[in-house]
Amino acid sequence: MIDAGSTGSRIHVYRFNYCNLSPTLEDETFKEIKPGLSAFPDKLQGCTPIAVKATAGLRLLGEQKSEAILKAVEDKIKNEYPFNLPKENGVIVMGGKDEGK
Hints:
Layout: E1 2-4, E2 9-17, E3 24-33, H1 42-45, E4 52-54, H2 56-59, H3 63-80, E5 91-93
Parallel strand pairs: 4-5
Antiparallel strand pairs: 1-2, 2-3
């Protein structure tokens, strides 16, 4: 999980054991970098690529609902943020085989 906050970006890597009735946490790794996204230089934002890859939760909504959400996210990024969003596959539902890589 990546928490891209205003004061820094933090990544949490979890490992769970799903063999039990309730998953148990086996390990957690935590890293943090500063400054956060709000400190990213304006002049570099236009040449910085950004992509949104949705996961299982969006896949479960069905194609029509998930496409509407993805379109709204893509429009929001294009209209309000200067980051470089790829024309193809910039905002997509990630295939299940790619999750967790």
